[in-house]
C-alpha cells in the first residue's frame, strides 16, 4: 500500500490566500487542512497531526509567532512562516523561535511548494514513523498507532504527536543517554537553536503523564550534562 501524501496545515486569516493556496497544494499532490486563526490551528494540530504548518505571522488575536512558539515547544510539526515584506524583525524572531523557513508575501506558490518539499525532505523517517506495534515500559503499554498509553490499572493517557514520537525514540534506545540535540533531530528533523527548550518541555509533559512522581522520575531520567535516558527495559508486545 502506498503511503498517504503529506498533510499540510495552512494558517492564514485571509481567505483569499488560504483557500487558493490549499487548492494549489492539493493539485500538487499534497493533502491540506485550512485554519483561519491560531485557535483553529491548535485544534487541527491536536486532532489531525499535520506533517508541516504554513503559518502567517500577522493575524488578529493570537499571532503567528505565538503559535510558532507553541508548535516548537511541543516538538513539531515543522513551520514555514509567511511574512510581510517589511517584517524583517518577525522573520528573525520566527527563526530564533524555531521556524524552519520563511516566505515573504506576496509569494509565488511554486516557490512555497519548493520550500515545503525541501523541509519535508529534511524530516528523517524516524520523525514520520514510529514502531507500528505496542511495547511495554514499566506499568505502561505504548500504542504508537493510537498515540496513547495504557496503565496496568486500566488508565488511558493520550499523547500528542510529538510526545508519541519522542517516547518511541527513547524506547528504541533503552538505557542509552541521548542528548537534547540528538532527540530533537530524530523527533523533529531539525537542529537545536540557542536556548531551545523543545525537548525539555516534551520530557516534562511525558513525565507528568507516566511517572508516579514527576519530580522524582524513575522511567525517564536526566543525565546531567548529557541529556536523557529511558531507565527501563522495553518489552515488545507484537
What do you see in this structure?
Residues 132-232 bind DNA. Residues 132-232 form the OmpR/PhoB-type domain. GO terms for molecular function: phosphorelay response regulator activity; transcription cis-regulatory region binding. One of its GO terms (cellular component) is cytosol. The modification 4-aspartylphosphate is found at residue 56. This protein starts with 6 loop residues before the first strand and ends with a strand. The strands form three sheets. The chain has a five-stranded parallel sheet, with helices on both faces. Strands 9-8-7-6-12 form a five-stranded antiparallel sheet, covered by helices on one side. The model has no long low-confidence stretch (mean pLDDT 85). The radius of gyration is 18 Å and the shape is elongated. 40% of the residues lie in helices and 21% in strands. The longest helix has 14 residues, at 109-122. Helix 7 crosses helix 8. It has two domains: 7-123, Rossmann fold (3-Layer(aba) Sandwich), CATH 3.40.50.2300; 131-236, Winged helix-like DNA-binding domain superfamily/Winged helix DNA-binding domain (Arc Repressor Mutant, subunit A). The chain has 238 residues and is of the alpha/beta class. It contains nine helices and twelve strands. Strand 6 (135-137) and strand 7 (140-143) form a beta hairpin.
Amino acid at each position: 500500500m502506498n503511503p498517504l501524501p503529506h498533510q499540510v496545515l495552512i494558517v492564514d486569516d485571509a481567505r483569499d490566500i488560504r483557500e487558493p493556496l490549499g487548492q494549489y497544494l492539493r493539485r500538487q499532490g499534497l493533502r491540506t487542512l485550512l485554519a483561519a486563526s491560531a485557535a483553529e490551528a491548535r485544534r487541527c494540530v491536536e486532532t489531525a497531526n499535520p506533517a508541516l504548518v504554513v503559518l502567517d505571522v500577522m493575524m488578529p488575536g493570537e499571532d503567528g509567532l505565538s503559535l510558532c512558539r507553541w508548535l516548537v515547544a511541543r516538538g513539531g510539526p515543522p513551520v514555514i512562516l509567511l511574512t510581510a515584506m517589511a517584517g524583517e524583525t518577525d522573520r528573525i524572531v520566527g527563526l530564533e523561535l524555531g521556524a524552519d523557513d520563511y516566505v515573504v508575501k506576496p509569494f509565488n506558490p511554486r516557490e512555497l511548494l519548493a520550500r515545503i518539499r525541501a523541509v519535508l525532505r529534511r524530516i528523517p523517517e524516524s520523525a514520520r514513523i514510529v514502531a507500528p506495534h505496542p511495547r511495554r515500559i514499566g506499568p505502561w503499554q505504548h500504542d504508537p498507532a493510537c498515540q496513547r498509553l495504557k496503565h496496568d490499572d486500566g488508565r488511558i493517557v493520550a499523547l500528542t504527536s510529538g510526545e508519541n514520537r519522542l517516547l518511541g525514540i527513547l524506547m528504541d534506545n533503552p538505557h542509552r543517554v541521548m542528548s537534547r540535540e540528538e532527540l530533537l533531530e530524530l523527533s523533529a528533523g531539525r537542529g537545536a537553536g540557542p536556548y531551545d527548550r523543545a525537548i525539555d518541555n516534551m520530557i516534562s509533559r511525558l513525565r507528568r503523564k507516566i511517572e508516579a512522581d514527576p519530580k522524582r522520575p524513575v522511567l525517564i531520567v536526566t543525565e546531567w550534562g548529557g541529556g536523557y535516558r529511558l531507565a527501563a527495559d522495553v518489552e515488545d508486545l507484537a
